[in-house]
Design a protein that fits this description.
Radius of gyration: 24 Å
Distance between the termini: 42 Å
Number of helices: 4
Largest sheet: none
Strand content: under 5%
Order of helices and strands: HHHH
Structural class: mainly alpha
Length: 95
C-alpha cells in the first residue's frame, strides 16, 4: 500500500506508545513493579511445588555443601547455579 505525500501530510500525528516517561517516573514505579514481579514469580513457584522444592534443595546443597559434604566443588557449584537457574525459570513460567 502506498500513500501520496499530500495524503501523508494530512494525517494526524500519532502519540508515542511508550509514553516517553522520564527516568524519575521509571524510578518511582520500581517498587510497585518489583512487588508485582515478585508476586507473579511466587505464584509460579507455588504452582510447581515439586520442581520448586528440587530447585531449592539444589541451591541449599550447593551453598552449604562445602561445609557438610565431601563432594567436588565443581559439582556443588553446578548444583548452586542449576538450582538458581531452575528457580528463575520456574518463577518466570518457562518450565
Amino acid at each position: 500500500m502506498s500513500v501520496s505525500h499530500d495524503t501523508y501530510d494530512e494525517l494526524p500525528p500519532a502519540s508515542n506508545p511508550d509514553g516517553g516517561g522520564s527516568i524519575t517516573d521509571v524510578l518511582v514505579s520500581l517498587p510497585a513493579t518489583g512487588y508485582w514481579a515478585l508476586r507473579g514469580s511466587a505464584r509460579q513457584l507455588a504452582a510447581s511445588p515439586v520442581r520448586t522444592v528440587l530447585a531449592v534443595a539444589a541451591v541449599v546443597v550447593g551453598a552449604v555443601g562445602p561445609r557438610a559434604l565431601s563432594v567436588s566443588p565443581l559439582v556443588l557449584d553446578g548444583l548452586l547455579l542449576g538450582g538458581i537457574l531452575g528457580l528463575v525459570l520456574i518463577g518466570e513460567g518457562r518450565v
